[in-house]
Amino acid sequence: MSDTATAQDEQPKEPLSAEDRMRERRSAAYRGATRLLARVGVRASLRERLARLQEAAPEVYDLDEPSDIYGNGVVEALERRVAALLGTEAAAFFPTGTMAQQVALRCWAARTGNPTVAVHALAHPEVHERNAFREVAGLRTVRVTGEPRLPTAQEIRDFAEPFGALMLELPLRDAGFVLPSWEELTELVEAARERDAVVHFDGARLWESTVHFGRPLPEIADLADSVYVSFYKSLDGFGGAALAGPKPLVEEAKTWRHRYGGMVFQQFPTALAALAGLDRELPRLPEYVRHARVVATALRDGFTESGVPWSRIHPEEPHTHQFQVWLPYAADVLLETAVRQAEETGTYLFPGFWDPRGPGLSMTEVTVTAEGLEWTPEDVRAAVADFVGRLPGTPRAEAPL
After folding, report:
1. Assign residue 238 a region: left if phi > 0, alpha if psi is -120 to 50, beta otherwise?
2. Which parts of 33-91 fold into alpha helices (H)?
3. Nearest residue to 172 via CA among 221, 239, 125
4. If we measure between CA atoms, which residue out of 304, 281, 306, 303 comes closest to residue 370?
5. In terms of Cα–Cα distance, which of 304, 330, 342 is closest to 391?
6. From the DSSP assignment, how many helices (H) and strands (E) are in the chain?
7. Dihedral over Cα of 211, 150, 207, 46: its sign
8. Up-side HSE of residue 136: CA atoms within 13 Å toward CB?
């Protein structure tokens, strides 16, 4: 080895930034936590994820079958499974929901002759997809409302300009995972149809909406002309999505999938993980939703009992197994407190990021899955008391964890 190479190896590494140090602390705290309300696969190691798939795969598909090539085999089996679950004529697998929804809405635009899509201002394509509808699909969006709820039927009827499609995100994640009532949803769809518009459901998290609506998935999906669902947001898969609807639309969508670069050579790990999620997680989602309501109530009670000057659980009764928590502290203070609680006690009550929402006001998202089912209301309140006691300026709460 040359002297130059040796000198380079011996050079001290640049110190980590505060952001990088926090990222490492959060990751270590999550891995070491003994108590969480949800443990999601995306934060597990590659070894853990592969081990879980190896365990589940033989239960969901015949592994002696040939592997998939360009969307056949296990991918086609997944498509048939989704269509059956949603009660649609057909379904097409897509590598991403961003691609699936662009394709769906450009297909509808060709049929209606109107490339305008009515959306909520907080809809995922408006907030998180870098104007992909406009820049890639040639679509134009108009915002029906920016209120933290789904649009109303009257807002659809009164909207000032025509649109070819109405896209409804169910639940609306950035507004707090909120859903309309079943009556509001049916009226909303009727209002769009009165305007000769098609209705597309952005159902990335539609799987867990059945408890709130009190309806099975096929009845919910039947309201729309097309539906997109995700395989990782609630089902803990590796990724992937599906577009479901009438067979002619789905067949055209597969053509556009190819044009978009979504005709991937082999996708069996993602497809197998999706089938495992449909078998293992989908049946449990109603249980998660019901317990999320128990957890939300206990969090609210815990903050009140701990003397927090103001707090908000939104929605007050969660519509799904995910909801928002708002507290009157700076985001960096809450993040540090959450990580420190996990490091010192093994309880990671708020493992997500805290999002600044105003001076001294922050919000985080809470998810309840299988691990959360083990938490009693007393467990939640005790964890809240300990968390609040660690906040600056707050007397340390004496609450066992």
Report:
1. alpha
2. 46-60, 74-86
3. 125
4. 281
5. 330
6. 16, 13
7. negative
8. 17
Distance from C-alpha of 320 to C-alpha of 292, rounded to nearest angstrom: 8
For the stretch 193-252, pLDDT in tens is 999 999 999 999 999 999 999 999 999 999 999 999 999 999 999 999 999 999 999 999
Distance CA 123, CA 162 (A): 19
pLDDT in tens, 131-158: 999 999 999 999 999 999 999 999 999 9
pLDDT at 8: 54
Token duo for residue 287: 């249980």
Q: What is the distance of C-alpha 261 from the center of its chain?
A: 24
Pairing of strands 322-327, 355-358: unpaired
Which residues, in sequence order, are CB contacts of 283 under 8 Å at separation 6+? none
The pair phi, psi for residue 238, each rounded to 5°, is: -80, -25
Residue 296 C-beta-side C-alpha neighbours within 13 Å: 27
Alpha helix stretches (DSSP H) within 120-207: 124-128, 132-135, 153-158, 182-194
Q: Give phi and psi for 174, each to the nearest 5.
A: -70, -10
Beta bridge partners, 242, equal 93, 229
Say if residues 133 and 142 touch (Cβ distance below 8 Å).
no
Is the CB of residue 326 less than 8 Å from the CB of residue 361?
yes
Helical ranges in 136-267 per DSSP H: 153-158, 182-194, 210-213, 217-221, 247-259
Q: What is the CA radius of gyration of the chain?
A: 23
Mean pLDDT of 20-42: 95
**Which two structure tokens, joined as six digits, stand for 242?**
């599906």
State the Cα–Cα distance between residues 184 and 204, nearest whole angstrom: 20
- Alpha carbons 356 and 167: distance in angstroms, whole number: 28
Partners of 169 in the β-ladder: 202
Q: Collapsing DSSP states into helix, strand and coil, what is residue 280? A: helix
Q: What pLDDT is attached to residue 344?
A: 98
Quickly list DSSP for 195-210: TT-EEEEEETTGGGGH
Q: 167 near 194, Cβ under 8 Å?
A: no
